[in-house]
Amino acid sequence: MTVDIGITFIIIILSIIGFTRQNLRSDYVALMAMSLLLVTGVLKPTEAIQGFSNEATITVACMFAISAAVIKSGLVNYITGILSKFLKFGFIPITLIIMFFTAVLSSFLNNTAIVAIFLPVALNIASDLNVDKRKILMPLSFAAIVGGTCTLVGTSTNILVNSIYKRAGYDGFRMFDFSMIGAILAVGVIIYLVFIGLRFLTKKPLEDVPGRSLYITTIIINEDFQELGLKYTESELMQVIGSSFNEVQKNNDVYDTFDELTFNIDDHIKIGCDIEKIKKLNLIKGISFLTTEASEKLNPDMNIFEVVIPKESPIVGKSLHNLLHFRGFNIVPLAIQKAERFIFHKVRDSIMTPGDQLVVATNTESQTRLDHELNLKFTAVHELNAINPRFLTIVILVLCGFMITTAFEILSALQAAILSVSALLITRTLSLDDVYEALDSQVLMLLASILSLGLALEKTGASQLLGDFLVTVSVGQNEYILVGVIFLITTLITAIMSNAATAALLTPIVISMSKTLSVSEKPLLLAVMLGASMSFMTPIGYQTNTMIYSAGGFTFKDFMRVGLVVNLVTVVIGTYLILEFFPLK
């Protein structure tokens, strides 16, 4: 083992530790890893920054822009209108239809954006059908995940693996090379989940499952409140609050009933509420949310948004009140929703954890900065775009052109993506500002930086060393066991670490394995590609799972009970399909 290989292994181990830490962002860890490879001389400066001009990074950036155009055109809202017509057929048909549309759209567009748009639709459907909303939201997330495995551009992981594959001197995968495998897995996951898997969700009486986006907040009575001195039982405010009342705190006394109480300045009323009730309360003069300071920062130019906190957000571990002053952001927290229904302490002091959903007030100018710098995922129920017929026509034509040119290999995915974005700009369907706002800087920085780890593995010979070790262990093993083990290992690592990082580390290793074993590299790469994308058994394994975690009132156990079986099923069926379509020899 050379010194460079030893340094590379140390940096990889430190990176893996960093990726598993909730308080460290994945892009930060990847950037630090790239810096260490540069400083230690393992990579030259030109090699370390190759990821920023890599085909994968540019293609993913273009796909973000195309996804933004689809959302702006109202195509998703048009589909939502179609979905509403199927409500009369009941839970199973509408769930199957939602999963179908989600999977198809996620095959070509950013699946996080698709889930963000369909999340409020799914919540409304669950409410209209009077069913546990977990049974709608989990299929939504899982369909987005499996849908992304159907095409080369379905996920950034696919694009990343293909980029490393081509860098190793191969032709790479084509747009629909593994679409049949992805489609069969998608159908299998959809059928299993709807008819069998959802039965494994932890049992909750329907009334104990939080209602449509049930949040917890505290209403504080100020000196401008018009019902000061009035009994709670006689007030209009309590009519708005209704049965969602939780408790009242007066000075240091806490009351769980308000029958004999009158309104005084600085009364703290803890309530449960949905987004509509928050909007109504915001119009009442003389009350504030969480703290009196919060009401001073509210202004008429702000809108109310719902956001989900992913594990990479720097606000994880901070209290809700800290958001008022966090790094000078123009954001006012109004309410919080955690996996547990109630919060048994002051709401303002609640510590934010991954998967929590917040209601915040901010202006549209700050939304992009909050998205990019705090990594908050906006899922506002009331902020859907209207359908724009002209934009809709152009977007559909551009998407069709993209699919046709890549399917028939007229253009590469990169060329087609760049031309598609150019067409959207020329037709003014998108502006440059729209494009810049659509770019997810965290994902792009992660991709660009993490590619340096893969390059270091290749350059130093570390990938060959690891590949030889795995070959020694796997000699004489059945081909299904070989591919299945790679698939399973990738899936397990992805459950606790970034899927892009997992793919970047394992891809060079399996390429080296294929050379040593004198077998086709494609089955092994597909095992990595699919394994890195299909993370069902934890709420933090994939971004769409994090988005639905709090919104659905899930527990970690829900994902383990349902997702573990789905993961095992996809490993078994996926391994068989890979070797059927791509023989090892």
Describe this structure in words.
The protein has 585 residues and is α+β, with helices and mostly antiparallel strands. Among the domains are: 75 residues, Alpha-Beta Plaits (2-Layer Sandwich), CATH 3.30.70; 78 residues, 2-Layer Sandwich (Alpha-Beta Plaits), CATH 3.30.70. The chain contains 24 helices and nine strands. The strands form two sheets. The protein has a five-stranded antiparallel sheet. It has a four-stranded antiparallel sheet with strand order 7-8-6-9. Helix 1 runs antiparallel to helix 2 and helix 4 packs across helix 17. It starts with a helix and ends with a helix.
Number of strands: 9
Sum up the overall morphology in one term. globular
**Number of helical elements:** 24
What name is given to the CATH topology of the domain at 303-380? Alpha-Beta Plaits
Taking all Cα atoms into account, the compactness measure Rg is 25 Å
Q: Approximately how much beta-strand content do the residues carry?
A: 5-15%
The main sheet comes to: 5 strands, antiparallel
Q: How confident overall, as mean pLDDT?
A: 82
CATH architecture of the domain at 303-380: 2-Layer Sandwich
N-to-C CA distance: 31 Å
Q: What is the CATH homology-level superfamily of the domain at 303-380?
A: Regulator of K+ conductance, C-terminal domain
DSSP helix fraction: 55-70%
- Helix/strand-derived class? alpha+beta
Q: Strands of the biggest beta sheet: in what spatial order?
A: 3-2-4-1-5
Stretches where pLDDT falls below 50 for ≥5 residues? 207-212, 381-385
